[in-house]
Amino acid sequence: MRVYANGKNISTHSLCNVLVQGERYAETIVFVLERIYEGIDLLDCDFSIRGVNAEGGECMQILSPISDKGNVLLYWSVSEYFTAVAGKLDLELRASFTSENGESCVLKYQMSPITVYPSPEGSDIVVPDTSEQIISEINAVVSDGVKQIQQTIDSFDTETIEERLDNMDSNIEVFLARPEVIPVTREQYDSMEHKKNALYVIVKEAII
Q: Please, are residues 108 and 7 in contact by the beta-carbon 8 Å criterion?
């Protein structure tokens, strides 16, 4: 579902009948913003969406901006923290950035409250504070990354590498087994101490 911003106003009319208490990532809402606002490139901003439920509990998610033909898209997969309590849910979309001269700027998009419909299963869900929610999101991202790395390792063809190493070992053994070839004259051969595993070749001319 796409929701379009008009300046700093975002109509939430289409969201009023969407969320149900206890849902977790069941809905993905895409906010569509004009990329440039008052000379500010929103693609350089950090975005978050904040909610306050009917019991005063606060929740927040980080959103990553994506460029799309002059617009910025923000994909919001609604977490269970926003649907923990049935009733009115106040929302606020926030963009912030720091300019090159060190000045910080914060934009807040106005959004009308929406309703989270009650679930027949009850409402005994404890809403963690904002910091715990962010940590949970970070842990989820790290866990997904570890799973992807493990899948890559599992799919790696180790048999081919082991076969190549075995062939290298065999070639090294053959090379080391070859005797050293030493050309010498008869006079030199008779007067020198002979090496083991060496092949002496008698030549007529003197070897310098």
A: no
Residues near 19 by beta carbon (within 8 Å), at least 6 away in sequence: 27, 78, 82, 83, 89, 114, 115, 116, 117
Beta bridge partners of 108: 94
Residue 4: DSSP 8-state:
E
CA triplet 146, 152, 157: central angle to 5 degrees?
A: 150
| Local confidence pLDDT in tens for the 208 residues of the chain | 899 999 999 999 999 889 999 999 999 999 999 999 988 899 999 999 999 999 999 999 999 999 998 999 999 999 999 999 999 999 999 999 887 777 788 999 999 999 999 987 655 666 667 767 777 777 777 777 767 767 766 665 667 667 776 776 666 665 556 667 778 788 887 888 877 777 777 777 654 5
Q: In the chain, what is the straight-line distance between the N-terminal and C-terminal CA atoms, in Å?
A: 88
Report d(CA 56, CA 12) in Å as an integer. Answer: 20
Full-model pTM: 0.59
